[in-house]
Amino acid sequence: MQYNRDPNGKLTDLKFKNIDTGMGLERMAQILQKKQNNYETDLIFPIIQKICEIANIDYFSSDDKNKISLKIIGDHTRAVIHLISDGVAASNLGRGYILRRLIRRMVRHGRLLGITNEFLPHIATVGINLMQNNYPDLKNNNDLILNEIKIEEIRFRETLERGEKLLDELISSGQKLISGFKAFELYDTYGFPLELTVEIAEENSISVDVKGFEEEMNAQKERAKAASSNIDLTLEGSLEREIDLFNKTVFNGYKSLLSEAEIKGIFLDSTLVKQASEGQKVLIVLDQTTFYGESGGQVGDIGTIFSKDVEVLVDNVMRKKNVFLHYGTIKKGILTIGQKVKTNVSSSNRAKAAANHTATHLLQSALKSVVNESVGQKGSLVAFNKLRFDFNSSNPISKDQISKIETLVNSWIMENHALEIKNMSKSEALEKGAVAMFGEKYDDEVRVVNVPGVSMELCGGTHVKTTSELGSFKIISEEGISAGVRRIEALSGQSALDYFSDRNALVNQLSDLLKANPNQLFERVNNLQAELINKNKEIQKMKDEIAYFKYSSIKSSAEIVNSFSILVNQIDGLDGNSLQSAALNLTSHLGNKAIVILGGIPNPENRKLLFVVSLGDDAVKIGLHAGKLINEIARICSGGGGGKPNFAQAGAKDIDKLSDALDYAKNYLQKTLDSHSDK
Description:
4 domains; 6-stranded antiparallel β-barrel; 6-stranded mixed beta sheet; Threonyl-tRNA Synthetase, Chain A, domain 2; extended; alpha+beta
């Protein structure tokens, strides 16, 4: 700000210039629309009106507490739809955690307004409609946004009630401080963000031990680190400190796999040394290299570093601060600082990695085409034998979609597109439509890998010259790895051909086993399944008949105690379903005053016990509870179980104490019914 304008329009210099007035769009709208606050402008109020409609309340007649909840949901709605549209998926890390916190806070304030059903997709739709003209991506990603919000709301509602119950117990206990342990339990078990716990606690004039929470969080992280068995210690100690002594390694492996180099550093057990000899495992720093160092998801190259007198087998290459670290074993000679050597990358493995990296680019383009344009990379692995691609998606990829993706990628392979790889400024690359990984940092100059008409990405990895070099492409798995993130594993080139060959061999084996040609396998298996179902029905029928004969023989042994029919007996040789049927049939036969307790050994070889308790309606009315009773009985035999008041099941291990357990049941019932008679 520089001037002050008086009522006549005259401008005069301000005494203090360049002061931010905070007069943004929302505040300007508030003034022009003569509203009390930003939330009542047409930028947000339509969302609040929708919330009021769902909650069946009126905004202007609401108390301050309800208005705060309405404003929070209205404000967060706009943030949430933009975050999801920009490719953010709800998670427990980084920007994903911000999104999760916002959505869960919205759900919680909806509950404060009395909203018990799902409502976020309805208000998100209003938010999208309000802003889609100025932000067309909201319209394009409408389905993605609504689906992500719906899934996250459902997920939180599943644990919210249990978490709120625990929190209510803490609040009602009268304590004035929620411990860090309890706050962490709410976070770790029930998905309550710390900020939400603090907010609810403050509403009830209770403090939260935030420092204690952070200590619990750090302790969990330390436990996770201690549990990991794949910690790479080679970059610790001396290497970590001394890596800065080396100049940037020049990578010249895009066009050649063989070149000359000079040894600049040798590490043994992460300690810098002047020389190393045959048989020792070393880490080598060169002034230049043709070996690709692991980055961008692509694994490091393998091959040899050699001279007339020295040979080193390189099994991995890593990058650390732009220095390439070659891991290997000296097979011949003595390695010394300053020594002139040659680098020779394994051409076959480089070709496999290049094919898989190009296939990864094609896969991402196919996902955008088949699944949703908003699909973005969340991680990747480009190995010699396979590729793995992690991407944002709230729903599993269907079999039909997987088939379409494979067909699309293979069509691009068959079309034999020639790749175009150029270095250019980042701004130019983005203007041309190159895809950058969200959140990734790039230099001002970037390398652009372009498959004309198919894919254009910022990428420093190695690639094929034409798509036909991939040969073929096959997806072998698709799964969810975290909330809103899916993972595809796939094969290309020789790995794909090997996969098809293995599957063909398996089909041939099945054909021989089932005495059917490959085209008849489905029908043959279908018929076998139908036969198996029929045989199982026949077996179950026989089991039921055996069970009937066994329990029919003990019907008459029921004892009458104070008008109740008690039947406690051992029946062996029946599985769980049959024993359950026996108990229910006996209860039905004996009537409302029936008390049936059966125990037995289904199979003597397994040495396991089963118990069933079934009670008539009148037995339940006097206070007997099948679930509690069976737990006491099974405990005698080192077992446990539970169930409903009228029916329960349990398992146990100690078959030698079966008689003791049944005797306990008889005595317990005798005392209980005698006591009931006295009343």
